[in-house]
Each structure stands twice: as structure tokens, then as C-alpha cells.
Amino acid sequence: MLDLSHHLPGVLYQLELTPTGEITFPYVSPASAELLGITSEVLMASQGFALFATAHPDDLASIQATLGAATQDRCPWQAAWRVLMPGGKLHWVQTQARPEQQPDGTLLWHGLITDITTQKEAESALAIAAERERLIHYAIEGIRHSLELEHIFSAMTQAVREQLQCDRTIIYRFSSDWSGEIVAESVAPTWQPLSDQLLPNEQFYQIENCNLATLIQKSERITDTHLQAIQGQAFQSRYDYRCVDDVSVAGFTDCYYQFLLRVQAKAYVIVPIFVGPALWGLVGVYQNTGPRMWQQPEITMLLHLSAQLTIAIQQAYVLDYTRKQAEDLQRAKEAADAANAAKSQFLANMSHELRTPLNAILGFTQLLNADPSLGRTQKHYLEIVNQSGEHLLMLINDVLELSKIEAGRVSLNCHDFDFYQLIDNLKSLFYLRAQEQGIVLRVIIDPAVPHHLHGDERKLRQILINLLGNALKFTTQGKVELRVCDQATSPQENRPPMPSLTSPHPHHLQLSITDTGCGIPPTALEAIFEAFTQTATGQKTPDSTGLGLPISRQFAQLMGGDITVTSTPGQGSCFTLTLPFTAASSCPLPLQGRPGHTIIGFQELPQRPRILVVDDEPDGQFLVTYLLESIGFEVLCCSDGTGVLALWSTWQPHLVLLDIQLPGMDGLQVAAKIRQQDPDTPIIALTAFAFESDRQAALAAGCNGFLSKPFQSQTLLQSIGQHLKLDYIYGDSRPQSPIDIIAELQPQMPTDWPAALREAAEQCNEQEIRRLLQYLPAEGEELHHHLLKIVENYDFDQILAIAQSLLTDG
User: Fold this and answer.
1) What b-and-e string marks burial along 192-230, b requiring 16 or more CB atoms within 10 Å of the CB?
2) CA-to-CA distance for 578 and 556, rounded, in angstroms?
3) What is d(CA 153, CA 135) in angstroms, rounded to the nearest whole number?
4) Which of the ends of the chain has fewer CB neighbours closer than 10 A, N or C?
5) What is the pTM for the complete model shown?
6) How do residues 630-654 score in pLDDT, each as one tens digit?
7) For 662-676, b where at least 16 C-beta lie within 10 A, e where not — what string?
8) Pick from 264, 261, 260: which is nearest to 242 by CA?
9) Using CA atoms, how far apart are residues 425 and 228, in angstroms rounded to an integer?
């Protein structure tokens, strides 16, 4: 038997399996060293599954299962597995064994292990060839029935992954700069898709660009890749591929190797996709579980698949180009209409979303300001909050105005206003910012400029905010100066002609904003007034949009003036705004500042007026409820459009305050349904929508009035009183004058303080006045701030009048 075993084409062995499960090898022929990579001496001295120590790990479970089944049935055992030899060589073996039971219950298996690698390779080649033909046929049929690339790519990656039994298949498309993106991916359930991992394009570019260098070369092979020519043809780049069986021993750079670890790739094949002469993308097949010996038939199949994808892409491009030519005009029209509609809807929504919180900010500020228990300091802080909120509201209104500019529907809103107060507010607005930047902010107004003007105050304010904001933005040291003069009283040579006004006494104001900033290059001076255009410096500024100057010039030209600019790079710029105005004899105070105009209640009635407040914002409900109940109204709230109808029919309010945007049924539908049943109950729309079209829609639905948020409390009360015909009771809201406040504080100050203040004002000694203001006690913080603003405007006459009045009264 020993002589016979030396001549058999395989390994002859005996395997003993005891009733207790112990395994030994009484005999193993010497051929085991060549076929299994383990000597017969080692095996016969071993126990357990030593015979299968070199078996592929994936095949061990199958070996054990078949041996266990044969043992249980006492029938012949047959199994096949792969053997991993030293150096990584892999071949197939097969065993056939017959059991013989011993008297003690031990099973003695007599078996033979033979090499079946050639047979397995033939079977694999036939199977792969058949599957390759099926897959290519599937690809051709898919291309024939669909020219949708997304569908084709998805189907192809799925089919390739299933056929090759790999862990991941991707199709990667390059951009013109060699960056790119994954356009299709099929991944085994146990692995995370690459598209979910947010891989940076830069990494893909750095990695695959190295592969590109190998894929697009036409004259030589690359030594660190497995590039091969197909069927002895001349070398062509479209037939090249990159094949890596084990990334850990491929000699990649550390950066590339770490990237592969990040995407769990242990082995891969990459083939190119060409469209014409250009490399379009790649097909990547990845094994994540471990190294893999890629077979030539598998690579050939991928190359054929790449050729079919090339055909599909070319056909899709042709179809897409033809379709685009036919649809361009229609698409352009639809896009323009959609853009206009989207812009209008966006502006309306943004107006609503911004006005809603502003309504609470300004509303509660008004309520707190009316609280008599608050001190002057607290009211001063509230005034700052209210001014900032009013300024933000003004900006929101201006954004809405921009939509009218493009439609040519912008109009002037002229009225009498206090020009000096406007400039003073702007200086206060920018003073802290300039101080934080270490920049001197100076305002100089020619005494000939009238205090009160007639014109569009809001547009003038917005222009000056844009110009002063830009000056501070681009100035890092030095100063920003606003100088105002009246050209009608300040003769200048070569002064540009101004448009004449119907008023017999026009004033041609010239407002110059000068800074010591970085300046503007001469080549960019005209471009700065073009929308969405910025200088190189502006592009580096995070909060610069390139819209401020174009909008300001359009406003100025609409008002009959213009904006010009001169600049020296490295030294600064000067923007000059010229505008025509007419003088106003006086400027009325706003309603809430007039004596006797604060509503504190209404004349006694047989029953308290009931008001139903409909608002889905809790803050809005609370604000209106607190305001109305403090006056004496009975209030009930509702937050949705469906429930308001039931409340209205049972509670029968005298008036309804109705928001437009409501969950369920919107305010317009609610108004229409109420109006169908009751033509008399007043309905006032109180909403954050502010377009004229919103007002018209509300009135058309049956509302009797329309107020936009944020609202003035007195305006709302007046509107309610008008519809309910109420006789209001007014309180005295006159503010205490600076002279009265100083008189109260004077006992705490030096006795010669008024005289010293008068002397400093007569000498126009700003520094001395500032020093004297330090004597004001802490209770005079608000007064100190008020007088300081007067000094900063160089209004020494007003300081002199205050001092003289104190001396006279004393």
C-alpha cells in the first residue's frame, strides 16, 4: 500500500473519528506536502482538523458540514475546497472517502484527495463566459429600451455586483477639472454607501488622477499596475485597467492607502469609460472583505461592459441635445415666469417671517415704555431697542421696495421730516461701530441747511446708511466724515445742474461721505454702481453683497439727484450725494410723542366691547390681549382658522382681529365665511403680510380694515375705536424737558454749574462742555446722553439756551 500511495495522483489518507469526537490520522501519503502544503509526518502527529489547516477560511464550514452529515448517515464523504499554499498560491482539491466502523465505535475513513484546479477553472471560465454574455445582452437590451442614464447606471452596477459577487460597484464621472462624483452605486447590505460618507472631491481627485495618468497613456505600460493588452492587439488606453488583488501589499503611498482603508477597500478593479477620445469616467469594482485574486474573464467582462456604457452615454447625449434644442424657448419662458413668481412669494414669506418677531419686539417695547414705574434709564434703554427695531423694520420695507424697482413701480413717499434728527439718529446708529474700530466719525452740517425738509425720508435714510456703512466697512484707521451743505447758498464752480422742482424755494443738498480707507482703483469706479458687481476688496468682505451702491444710486436718481465718487487707492474715497428738497415750515411730532394722545381707556358703555383675536403666534396673541385688556376690552383668542367660526357664532364678538396666515383654514377664507353670515361685524386684518396685493385680497374677502405687523399700539386702538365708534380717554404723555430734569438734579451739582455751562457754550468749547457733563449724577444718565448728542452736532446755541434758562429761573 505504501508503494501504491507514492504513485497515486493525490493524497491517500486515513482519518479516525472516535465516538468522543477526537480526530487522528493513522496514515497520510507523502504527496500531502505538495498538494496541501503540510508534510505527512506533521499530519500523522496531529489531531483535530489539521488535514484542513491550509483550507480557505470561507470553505471550512462546508467541509465540516459535509463530514458531519456523512458521519451521521455512515455514508461515503465527498467535499471540495480551496487550498492556500505558501506565497499566496491558490488551488482546488477534492476528497472522496469511505467509512469503516471499528468494534469500539470508531469510524475509520479511507480517502483520497486529488487536485481539481483545472476542472474548476474550466467550469468557472464557462460560467463567467455565459454570465458575461448574459450581462452584455442585458446591457444591450437595457440601452435599447431606455435612454435614461440614471436607470442604466443603476441596473448595470447592480448586475455587475451580483455577477462578480463583490462588495461594491460604482460608476464615477469626471468633471472638466478632473474632480467628479459617484453617479451610481450598488453595495452589499453590510457596507455603507460611499455617497453617504461625504467623501471630499479633492481626495478622489488626488487618488484617481494618479490612475488617470496610467489609463490615458498611449506609449508605455506602468510598472506598478497590471496593464495588459487584449488579444494581442496594439496598446490602446481604452483597454487599460487597474487591478489590485491586495491593497496592503500594492506599495501605495500612505495617503492613498489610508483613503482605501476609509472606503473599506481591500482589493479592486477599475476600468475606464471613454466617450469619443475623452475619458468620461470609471467603473470601479471593490472587494471589502479581504484580498481577491481577480480573474481575467472578470476583467474582460468589465471592459465589454464599459464599451456598452460608452454607447449608452453617447446615445443619451444625442437625445438630450436634440431634446434641449426643442425645449429651450419654452423652458426659458417657464423659468422666467417661475423665477418671478418664486421671487414674489419669497419676498412675501420673508416679509411675514421677519415682521412676526418684530411685532413682538416693538409691541412689548411700546407697552413697557408706557409703564410709569420704569425709571428714565430703563426707558432710555427701551428707546434704543425701539429705534433699532424700527430701523430693522425700515430695512425690511426697503427690501420689499426692491422688487418694485425691477418692475418700474417704485414711487416716492414724500412728507415733512426733521433732517437734523435723521442725521443725529444715523450718527447714533454708527457711533458705537466706529468707536469699536478705532475710527473717528464726524458729522458737519452747514447752518444754512434747513432743519425741516419735505421729501422721501426713508429713501434718503437708506442711501446714507449704505454709504456710511461702506465707508466704515472699508476703513481700518483714520476717520469717516459726513459733511452736509446747501448748494443754493454755497456757490461752487462747475456745479452740475440740478432738476428744478415745482416748489419756488428748492434746496440742493450736497452730502459728502469721505473716508481714509483703502480706496477704489480707477478701473472699478464705474462697475461699483452695477448690480451684483464688487471690487476685489468687496469680494473679500464677508457681509458685502454688491447691491448697496446700485440701489442707492437708483433711489437717488428717482429722487431727482445722483451719486458720484472720487477715490485714490490707498488714501480713501469720497461719495457725493446731491438731492433736491423743499423746506418745510415745521415737522409734526409722531402721534405717540404728542401731548394728550396716549389712549388709556374709553367712556363707560352698557357692556364691555368683545374682541376676538385670531393669531397662530402665542406672542402675538399675548401682546394684543394685554394691550386691549389694559384699555378695558374683553378679549378671547383663537389660533386656527377652523375653530374661529365656532367661537364667533357662540361668543358673538363686536369686532374680529384676524391674522391671514393660519393653520387649517386661512384668514381670507375665515373672513369670507363670516361675511356670508354676518355683513355687519367689523373685521380688521392684522397680519405680517405687507404687500398691497395682500391688502386688496383682505378687503375683497370681506375685511373692513388692514394693518401690517409690527403695528403701533395707538394706531390699532384708533382703528378699533373708529369701527366701534368709541369715545377714548387720553392720558398726558408729554416728556419732561431737559431744563426740568436739570432743575431737579441741580441740588446735587456745583452751584456755579449753569454759569460754567453758559461760558463754555459761548466759547464753543466742546471739551469743557463734555467735562461739565460729568457732574451730572447717575440719575441723569439719559439727560447726559441727550446733551452729549447735542454737543456732537456742534449745536452750541441749544446748550447756551439751556444754560441761560437755568440761570434765569434761578
Assistant:
1) eebeeeebeeeebbebbebbbebbeeeeeeeeebebeee
2) 8
3) 13
4) N
5) 0.39
6) 888 999 999 888 888 888 889 999 9
7) beebebbebbebbbe
8) 260
9) 79
